[in-house]
Amino acid sequence: MGSLFKPTIRDVAEKAGVSLATVSYVLSGRSGGSTRISEPTKERVLEAAKELGYVANSAARGMRRGRTDTVAVVIENMESPWDRALAETANRILPAHGYRVVILLGQEAWRNFMLSGGADGVILGFSTETEDETRTILDLAKRGVAQVIVSQFLEPQGFDVLSVDAAGGIAEAAEYLGGRHERIGVIHRGTSAPGPRGTRLELFRAALARNGVQLDGSLVRASGGSWRTAFQSALELLSLPEPPTAFFTTADLEALCVSGAATWKGLEIPDQLEIIGVENSQLGKTSDPALSTVGPDPSEHLAVDLLLARLKGEAGEQGRKVPVPWKMRFRGTTQRQDAESGNGDNGVVSTTAAT
Predict the structure, then answer these.
(1) Is it true that the peptide bond before 81 is cis, omega within 30 degrees of 0?
(2) Which candidate, 100, 110, 121, places its Cα nearest to that of 352?
(3) What are the helix (H) ranges across 30-76?
(4) Which residues form the HTH lacI-type domain (predicted)?
């Protein structure tokens, strides 16, 4: 027998009293063709595999077959309504086309999984665009792995790019808040360390400066993607002797945490505190009051459609770049509330490079 801890296909064959080929055929789920396996034999193989606790090595099997029928969706944080919606959209659409969906969190997880042949394609729902990440994307493209990358800066090179452009919407948010408030609190999704180029925080800071307003660094906090941290940070800032009279956050989840903290402090929104988030998430639209936010029109489906076309061989060799412009949407957490507030729209495409 093989290892007691990891039974092999040979162990299953010996226990069932059949050949390796028979076990491989049964466990692969194949049918038809010239091979005929009786039902009693199939049952014997399946029972032996169950008793031994045999689990197929899908990656190795995929390499032998030339495909895994699996697609990976890489997101940053399951607590984010944005990331969750992207994962749910992929999981709703892709199985109907014969693909299993694997949700991966973080940089190391996706690189190691994809480089080991874990999936036929990947949607990278956020992009830090480090050297390691870019090198991995290019390596996978050379291998013919289907990829859709959400990025503010990358150009197609054998993969497709959803080109997010948050700058215009964030500039509009900065112009609005900067013209009305002297003390603006900021809670951003990144860490306290300097972020990559073009982050949402940096875009907001630069847009304020263009309007003659300097962002007070003492009013800036990092959430690390945690709603608890965001809530506590908002309470801390709102408890200052001179608290912010407005907040900008780089994700809707953090903005909703600010709204909750303000309500807990007894503040009236938007009369005593204005709040603008980033994402245009469904959660923000259905909150009370509805969240003013910077974000795109519905776009999560674009990532899935692009990937399916590439998996089917219908995409060009170089790849496509699809622009996803973002705009400011004034709703219930700002004094300005436009009639066109985007009811029914839900942007879901994200990138850490813009966080």
Answers:
(1) no
(2) 110
(3) 39-52, 58-65
(4) 7-65
Q: Does the global pTM surpass 0.70?
A: no
Same domain, 161 and 186: no
Interatomic CA distance for residues 353 and 164, integer angstroms:
10
Q: Which pLDDT tens digit goes with each residue over 208-249? A: 999 999 999 999 999 988 899 999 999 999 999 999 999 999
Tokens at 347, concatenated: 């942007």
146-151/121-124 β-pairing: parallel
Are 247 and 220 in contact by the 8 Å Cβ rule? The answer is no
Q: Strand, helix or coil at 53?
A: coil
Residue entry with tokens 């063709």: 33
- Residues 6 or more apart whose Cβ sits within 8 Å of residue 262: 234, 238, 269, 272, 273, 275
HSE, side-chain direction, 13 A CA sphere, residue 300 = 24
Which residue range forms the structural domain that includes residue 142?
Answer: 64-165+299-325
